[in-house]
Design goal:
Blueprint: H1 3-11, E1 13-17, H2 22-26, H3 29-35, E2 40-41, H4 45-53, H5 59-65, H6 71-96, E3 103-107, H7 116-129, E4 135-140, H8 145-154, E5 159-164, H9 167-186, E6 196-201, H10 203-216, H11 227-242, H12 245-252, E7 260-264, H13 277-280, E8 287-291, H14 293-302, H15 313-326, H16 330-362
Parallel strand pairs: 1-8, 2-3, 3-4, 4-5, 5-6, 6-7, 7-8
């Protein structure tokens, strides 16, 4: 038994891998990770850019596709094939968990981040093309994305809500999930079939807050490197609060499942911080942690399997209050990080399409 198995069996946290590529899926690498305790897969445009431009594993299919379709359509065909095959690898985990785990996530185009209707149609299309119970479609928690999330849940679709950077936006995401479940129930839907995670981004918060603290100077001394964990721990408190009480109990009685918090961006960006700071500090039941390969290996080697997500809650509140006192506006931090997150994924997507276009031109297509 590995530390990843212990994480799930002893603490109720599901470790997922934040990476997906064809060689790993077809060569057995993903299956080996599942054997070591990985219980799900997340992907994003940056991951696909690295996969498709850093390997010749897609060349044969791409050459065949680009002869009869657009470059962007070829990308989606290849991505959908990868995700479909990954769903097959994770299907035993899904079945053995009674449908609670074993999911593979595919994100809608980042160009749709401010387009509610476009996001809804894109999410429906992905669900139509990958008609599997362990698919999750990723939708960003932008202001325009939140209503699309509610619509998708109201249709009984599995959704991974991504790019959450603030507690108020997380509250809006929870409300979208609950109202979506209520609408699905009103239409006679089976709530037990609906699954969702809310991806709360972690390390990037410290990166931005620390930058602002450095600009403030001496009066902010001692505050760096603590905002991300503090905010995530308060998010977990919000989760426990909203998924309790009469409203939730009425949904749970009809088979509804909680929308688990998913800790994303858990690799440590600042080399001065512990490599597992954002993993060891956020362990607890009914949560998911999606980690890149290096962080998975680090946790397997020296991770600490102990409940930590609801320790120091009063200190977390005090820390965020102190940040406000010295001039760090967490609402503005979240705004900047959301804009940067959308822009980063959009840039990766554009670079991927350009690389594929260059490849198509080289093929004379």
């Amino acid at each position: 038994m590995t530390r990843l198995h212990e994480l799930y069996r002893e603490q109720g946290q599901s470790p997922w891998i934040d990476n997906l590529d064809r060689p790993g899926v077809r060569g057995g690498g993903l299956a080996q990770l599942v054997e070591r305790g990985i219980r799900g897969v997340t992907s994003n445009p940056t991951i696909f850019e690295k996969a498709m431009t850093g390997s010749d594993a897609y060349d044969e299919q791409f050459a065949e596709l680009v002869g009869r379709t657009s470059v962007e359509s070829a990308f989606w065909d290849m991505a959908i094939e990868d995700v479909t095959e990954a769903c097959g690898v994770l299907r035993p985990v899904h079945d053995d968990s009674g449908g609670a785990d074993g999911f593979v996530s595919l994100e809608v185009s980042p160009a749709l981040a401010t387009d509610t209707a476009g996001t809804v149609e894109a999410a429906r299309d992905i669900h139509r093309r990958i008609d599997l119970p362990n698919l999750m479609v990723k939708i960003p928690a932008t202001e325009e994305g939140v209503p699309a999330i509610a619509t998708m849940i109201s249709e009984g679709r599995n959704i991974n809500v991504t790019l959450i950077f603030s507690l108020p936006r997380y509250e809006a995401v929870i409300e979208a999930y609950l109202s979506g479940l209520e609408a699905f129930a009103a239409s006679g839907g089976d709530l037990s079939k609906v699954h969702s995670v809310a991806s709360f981004f972690v390390s990037r918060v410290d990166t931005e807050v620390d930058r602002r603290l450095a600009a403030i100077g001496e009066s902010a001394s001692g505050l760096a490197g603590k905002a991300a964990v503090a905010q995530a721990r308060l998010a977990y408190q919000a989760f426990r609060s909203r998924f309790s009480g009469p409203r939730w109990e009425a949904l749970a009685a009809r088979g509804a499942r909680v929308q688990r918090p998913l800790w994303a961006s858990t690799s440590t960006k600042n080399p001065a911080y512990r490599d597992l700071l954002y993993v060891d500090s956020l362990i607890g039941p009914d949560t998911v942690d999606t980690m890149p390969d290096a962080t998975v290996e680090a946790f397997l080697d020296h991770g600490t399997v102990a409940r930590s997500v609801d320790t120091g809650v009063d200190g977390a509140r005090e820390h965020l209050a102190r940040l406000g006192e010295v001039g760090v506006d967490m609402a503005d931090v979240a705004r900047v990080l959301e804009e940067e997150g959308v822009a980063s994924f959009s840039k990766s997507f554009d670079q991927l399409l350009q690389a594929l276009t260059d490849k198509a031109n080289a093929l004379g297509r």
